[in-house]
Amino acid sequence: MSQVVERDLSLRESHAMDASGLRLVPEGVARPNSAKEVMAVVRECISTVTQITAAGSQTSTTAASITDRGVLLSLRAMDRVIDLDTTSRTIRVEAGALVGDVKRLAAEQGLLFAPDPTSEDSSTVGGAIACNASGARTLRYGATRAHVRALTVVLANGQTAELRRTPLEKNTVGLHPVHDPIDWFVGSEGTLGIVVDAELALLPLPVRVTGLALPFDDEASALAFVVAARESALVPRCLEYFDALAIGLTRDAYGDRLAAPGATALVYAEDATEDPDLDAWLALAERHGAGVDDTRVFEGEGPLKEAREARHAVPSTMNERGARRREAGGRKVSTDWAVPYRRLADAITAARSLAEQAGIDQAVTYGHAGNGHPHQNFIANDAAELARIESVVATTLETVIAMGGTVAAEHGIGKIKRKWLPLQLSALQRGMMGAIKRELDPNGMFAPGNVM
């Protein structure tokens, strides 16, 4: 009888769903409290030839954190803070620590953990590393990868590897892909090893942050403003777009907190400079047709949190709507494609045209316009509608790739988007991925069905 893997049906069913809308019941669940216990689970699975899928809070939108093949390894109990060093500006935490908790601990010391996935209060550091999570402020700070300094990883042989980024500024030894093994695991979606703890880089906490919710009469004007803001002397740390449907969801949840009555398009920007030039922001917005008299301004921790809550109402509401359609074979279908930011208006127009031609409801469109990266959320009411929506998404992705874009900018590939990987990666690139997988996980033990 296993001492580390639990087989109780109710426990397995409680780990069978994430934010993807799929339901996969694992054959067993392990809930380790330490790296030593993770090693014990891996070694038991080696001996029984059992596959393992690591998970945190299971907020994945791509089914990367659920499985019906082998053991679901929940790292959520491993949430300890190992060290916070204000001199080196680093924090070391276990994989199950919540991103939001890390951010708050850092802020207490006048420091900032920059990655800010919308689900930061429910997503874990291990999950953020697994899919190289980003968020609204990626525009200025970059995704999670740039902030990972060291990792402890349990490998497929049951041993741990301690990895640390080199401080070297120059290095010509060997092929570039082997220079920094940390980058093998960031974004690998649990397919190459199990991250059990991480050392993360911190930045000085901004002295002042100002949020601006700028209303526009139409989508084209709002997206033209995004391009202009990126190419101006202003220093936005985020440029978020909301279409009319997305604004409606924020209004249903929080009234006019984010958008004034009558707004049909909205850009939310944040300026983290100590002395923001609000006149320049408003003048640029006005030149692109913004209703500057109806602009909302957010300053201070409380108001900025309120703006973030209103933004989060969009995906949370869509998740709830999708969940109600599961029994009928439907679910939420979410995209996270991206294009070069100057092409975003063209890409959204093309996506809307494809949806109209297919006779499906338009997606709720919102998100990281500053990076050319919107989210489009559809609700499939049943299996037949799901098939039509996925067909439209596939054609949209072909258009996106032709514009120099990507099929996944933020949430990873997981199981749901694996079928679209060949749209972007050549056979040679996929072959290289397979070679790395075979070297690190020769028996295919980790995260079956994810990515590859």
How would you describe this structure to a colleague?
With 452 residues, this protein is of the alpha+beta class. The protein folds into 2 domains: 81-204, Uridine Diphospho-n-acetylenolpyruvylglucosamine Reductase, domain 3 (2-Layer Sandwich), CATH 3.30.465.10; 208-416, 3-Layer(aba) Sandwich (Vanillyl-alcohol Oxidase, Chain A, domain 3), CATH 3.40.462. The chain has 14 helices and 17 strands. It has a 7-stranded antiparallel beta sheet, with helices on both faces. It has a 5-stranded antiparallel beta sheet with strand order 4-5-9-7-8. A hairpin with a 4-residue loop joins strand 4 and strand 5 (90-94). The protein starts with 8 loop residues before the first helix and ends in a 12-residue tail after the last helix. 48% of the residues are buried. The mean pLDDT is 96.
The fraction of residues in strands falls at: 15-25%
Count of runs of 4 or more consecutive helical residues: 14
| Strand element count | 17
CATH class category name of the largest domain: Alpha Beta
Q: From the 3D structure, determine the CATH topology of the largest domain.
A: Vanillyl-alcohol Oxidase, Chain A, domain 3
CATH superfamily of the largest domain: FAD-linked oxidases, C-terminal domain
Could you give the order of strands across the largest sheet?
14-11-13-12-16-17-15
Alpha-beta content class = alpha+beta
Mean pLDDT: 96
Overall form: globular
Number of spatially distinct domains: 2
Quaternary structure classification: single chain
Measured distance between first and last alpha carbons:
32 Å
Profile the largest sheet: 7 strands, antiparallel
**Which percent range fits the helix content?**
25-40%
> Would you identify the CATH architecture of the largest domain?
3-Layer(aba) Sandwich
Enumerate the spans where pLDDT stays under 50 for 5 or more consecutive residues: none
Q: Which value, in Å, is the CA radius of gyration?
A: 22 Å
